[in-house]
Each structure stands twice: as structure tokens, then as C-alpha cells.
Amino acid sequence: MNATREKQLQEKIQFYETVLNNILNGAMITDPEGKVIFFSESYGRFLGVDPQKQIGLHTTEVVENSRMHIVAQTGIPEINNAQRIMGHDMVVQRIPIKTCCWLWALDLRKTVFSIFTPSSLSFMSQQF
Predict the structure, then answer these.
(1) Range of the domain at 121
(2) N or C: which end of the chain has fewer CB within 10 A?
């Protein structure tokens, strides 16, 4: 790969990481085995952890009740599922991302009030 192409790819990666870090909802991406390859700054603030130190850990070591490794293995998305993390009820989106050779998993979450119904989730969501 030539230097210009490598620089373009690095800039693209930096751009995507900046976008993910600026989403107020937490975001985590795992590899097919469930190892964290990206952990957003907002998610780190919510959990009180250093996002960079989560890289390489298994998702179950980072987030209680995680199912990211299961989504990465099965390829079946889990949309608007309830999950309790650190005493907070969350609505999570676990989305498999298929590429030519791998199945990745993306986890987006929102803090919601303790009592909710599926029809009112969008009105009750609270950014963290």
C-alpha cells in the first residue's frame, strides 16, 4: 500500500472514531470473539472507566450482562432490548456488522427511566 493511501485510510478511521465518540449514547464494537475493539468516550464516562483500557478485553469483563459476544457469533441483531447496567435500565441495540470475512458487533445504548413500555421508549429516553 502506498503512503498516500495509508494516510487516507488512517484519516478515515480517525473520522469514524470521532463520530462514534461524539454520539451521546455509549458505543462499543467487538470482534467476532467478543473482544472489545472500540469503546466510546461517552460510554467510558458513564461506566467510570478509561475507554482505551477496555480495548482487548472480552465484553463480559467490561459490561455486566453483556450479550455482544452472542450477537457476534450468531449474527442475529438484538434491537431495543432492556439491559440493567450499574443500576440503570438501558435500551440496547446490538447490531451484527458483516464484512466479507468477519462478523462484528456494535452496541449502542440509552439510559431510560426505570418504568417504561415499548411504545414510550423514545419519549422517555435520557442521554447520559
Answers:
(1) 27-126
(2) N
